[in-house]
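Problem: given the chain below (686 residues), write out its structure.
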Amino acid sequence: MTVNRTKLSFFDLPDELHDIIFSFIPQSQLFKWKEIPEIQGLVLRNLYAKVGIWEYEQLHSDYDPTKTVFGKPDERKPGYMELHSGKDFLNLIKAMPSVRPKVLYVANKSILTQLIRDCPWILRSVKIELNLPLAFESNLEQQLTPEDINLFRPYHIDCLQNVKEGNPSSEAWKIVADCRRISVAFVEFDPYFFENHRFTNLKKLELQCSKLSGEHICLLPKTLTEFSGMLDMAATEAHYLLDFPPNLVRLIINHFYPGRNISFPIDISYLHSLKFVRIDSSLKETWILPKNMYEIQYDGELDMSTLHEDHPNLTSITHYPKKVDLQSLSNSGIKFPKRLIKIRLSSEYIFQKIVYSEMHGQKRRKAFIEIEFPPDLVELEVQNYKLFKNEEFGFCIDFDMYNLGSLQHLKLYRMHSVSVLGDTLNNLVSLTLYCFTPDDTFQEFLLTLDNLEVLECDQCGGGNRLCVPDKVKKLVLVRGMLSEFHLQGASVEILDLRSNCFRTIDGSTFELPPSVRRIDLSDNRIVDIEGSVRWPKNLTHLNLDDNNLRRLYNLPNSLEYLSASENKFDESFKMSVFPRPIVCLDLSSNKLKGIHLKSVNLVQYDKLKELNLSNNKLIARNFGKLLPASIKYLNLSSNLIVDLDHSLKTLKNLEEVDLRKNRLNRVLTNEITINRYKNENTVILI
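Solution.
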């Protein structure tokens, strides 16, 4: 046998192997490689396998300057790129003709109409996922007009979101019948509708507001692999088998509560392909689940003592039962399946009680339940739905009693007067606390977390003089009662202090380490920023939304991104107070009036790219002359502007101007007229 040893190049490998290789390369690195001619085709195919096109009314970047016409890579979604508008997609195709997405997500049918008009050849081999307009009064015939149907028919509409029920004989359903996924919203869906249509390709069905009885379940299309809906158990008799489609992989059931308990078990063990199930119920019924489950979210009766035998392949479980049988489990204990990496459970399973011994004059801990956690557990969430009150003993969680050396993410919810103990969580990266009141032991526990990078506290007590571990980079203290804050000697870079009680920011009540780069102070009661405040020298992002500011002074000189919407700025506000490096500025939803924009010249801010002055009362003209040449996105929507001028043409980098919801003359709604006031690359939204 002769073996051909001709050398194969990387490009001779099959596409499937290319995809596997590129899946190990960070998206940000692929984004940099897109300009290399030799591998451009392969890189673009992997970068833009899935493209989402959304229309934003707010600032495009959301204070993220890395978003461009080429999109922004997201390491959490390999192969997915999000773009701002249909125009951005057309510019992308023009700049990179090799881009050929496999899946296209469009936010509304007007975007799809635009793409069909301008680049139909791109769409012929693309699976399209289309969001229909949200309107309670609109049915499918109003959502998809005859013109839409004729236009969309040649293309592969793979998914429709927000479908409303209409006439079953409507021509619109001919498009829907070929879909793989349908989401039905805001409607009591007629289950017998499925008998009137042959959904040969339907794989995923979401019935958001429709309740089905047991006898209706059998009418669901047999092709389904994912189903989400509400089950009306009041109309389901004990003898009636819930005949779900046999190939279901994901099942989500939201119960209607009929006001009576179900005395019979609900058996779905015949669904041998089922890997994920979520069952939300206020009843105490028992569900018999298939053995080969991967993920369970269930608040009904579940035998935790045999969990490792019943579901050996389980990787994630969420279990918040209405009642825990402590007596039974205290004898048998809990042994979790070894493959579990994510557990969410009730605090009753893990709490220990603290008993005071008069004989020895000290406290000792006694566990309710012996628990054997899996060796590779990564995430643990504990929620306390019941407030334990007993004068004889308190409650604690001592993590040293368990083998949790691999734990990286810990979440503790509704822990009032609960002691948290232990010094063995050496690999913990993030700690989330919600409705948590720390006692004297918590600070000691916190400082044992040497590798902690993220600390999030929501509605927690204390915290104004918090000592955090050295490696914490992100600190969140939201919805508390903070009126002053002192943080020193830490390496925190991102600080979130939303929804607290700050009134004045000054040097005596607000101290931060120099490492902080981003601060969110939105939804407070701030009325002034004093000159004594010492801002971190590297601060680039500041969010002051939804406060009571009437003026802006003493801003950090390093600031690049400032959001100060929903304050009390009026015609006396001076817009010459911003730092020169400012890139993105949001002053929307204030009280800027009249021709106020003329009172300041923004040309000096030569790095400004995005300016949002929407939802004010501006009537400015010639505003193009007041803006720097660097401006790309200008939002003047919801003002009192009545006319345009040719000054916009002087802004060569301007890509989009939003003038919607103004008082523009009707003649300006004509596309030919609009073109006189803009450059070729500028889009004016009216």
